[in-house]
Amino acid sequence: MQDWSKDYMFGYQFLNGCNPVMIRKCMTIPDKFPVTHEMVKSFLKKGVTLQEELEAGNIYIVDYEILEGVPTSSDQLYLTAPICLLYKNRLDQIVPIAIQLSQNPGEKSPIFLPSDNECDWMLAKMWVKSADFIVHQLVTHLLKTHLISEVFEMAVYRQLSAVHPVYKLLKPHVRFTIAINALARENLISENGIISKISSINGDGITKVIQSAMKTLTYESLCFPETIEARGMEDVPKYYYRDDGMMIWDAIHDFVSAVVEIYYESDETVQRDVEIQGFVQDVSFGMNTSDSEYRFNLTKAICMGGFPTGVQAAGLPND
After folding, report:
1. Residues in a beta bridge with 98
2. Cβ distance 151 to 139 under 8 Å?
3. Backbone torsions φ then ψ of 267, nearest 5 degrees
């Protein structure tokens, strides 16, 4: 608590805070974030260039591009789409070394540095955390926990009989999901819901953020080991979210595999199970599709009430 304002704690929260899924290894500085060696050389190990640290895998980035162009609830409220560059120092701490509060560099969007005025640097970090709060609430938590789980729950009820082994396997894990999601739609993400009241984003903005997140939703993005590898975070020190998460993933994998292998002897056995095939077709609905209108309607369906009611409300075919 005493160290909340320090740079090392700011960086540590990207590893083990409430939203430890945004940080990724940076191998190349993006053009939209023109950080130079001269800007950050005093924050790096002496005698080492920024390019050398990039090649060594010691530079990390957090990019909130998903918030670019998202409407706010009034012209007196503001929302940034920041980019933050972080560095793994000699103490194995992840510390911020540069922050830009928009996706468009220029005179009106300067790059803030730890050497700037203390209040300016603190405000830049606060804007990053404000953006992180929005993305955590709407994408990491609401979409990828609550709403996606509801898709699986509806598929369980629609496609699997109560005596099916996968029904029995999944039923305890989706209990109460539909109930709590109904409350969320009513009280959390509605036009006058809590999110609109406590943040700068409105109902249209909520839909836009979730719609943007759906563009990158693939089966692999829901699998823990693949997401860690995709972000280049396999060997980052003190990343306890990864370490604990892998143990939980392995335990679930071992348990589920042991149950499934009792009933399915081969891939052909799975293919012949019409209930499982129907279940898979339901949960893959809209996942990794290139049709933007189709994906937009899927987003509406999820936000408006899941399946099947949301499908009908969004004007999608029931099949």
Report:
1. 85
2. no
3. -60, -35
CA 247, CA 245: separation in Å to the nearest integer?
5
Contact 140, 19 (CB under 8 A): yes
Orientation of helix 240-263 relative to helix 7-16, angle to 10°: 0
The residue whose two tokens read 């370490």 is 243
Positive or negative, the CA dihedral 31, 36, 37, 40 is negative
User: Which of the 8 DSSP states describes residue 97?
Assistant: E
Closest CA to 212 of 81, 34, 99, 310: 81
Cα gap 8→215, rounded to integer Å: 33
What is the edge-to-edge ordering of all strands in the sheet holding 111-112? 24-25, 59-63, 83-88, 94-100, 111-112
Q: Cα separation of 295 and 45, whole Å?
A: 46
| Count of C-beta atoms within a 10 Å radius of residue 141 | 15
- Contact of 284 with 290, CB cutoff 8 Å: no
Are the beta carbons of 68 and 142 closer than 8 angstroms? no
**Model pTM?**
0.86
Per-residue pLDDT of the chain (319 residues; tens, 9 = 90+): 899 999 999 999 999 999 999 999 999 999 999 999 999 999 999 999 999 999 999 999 999 999 999 999 888 899 999 999 999 999 999 999 999 999 999 999 999 999 999 999 999 999 999 999 999 999 999 999 999 999 999 999 999 999 999 999 999 989 899 999 999 999 988 888 898 888 899 888 999 999 999 888 888 888 999 999 999 999 999 999 999 999 999 999 999 999 999 999 999 999 999 999 999 998 886 565 444 454 445 444 445 554 444 443 333 444 4
Three-class SS of residue 318?
A: coil
Distance CA 40, CA 72 (A): 33
201, 195 contact by CB (below 8 A)? yes
Instruction: Work out the burial of residue 33: count CB atoms within 10 Å of its CB; fewer than 13 is exposed, 13-18 middle, 19 or more buried.
Output: buried
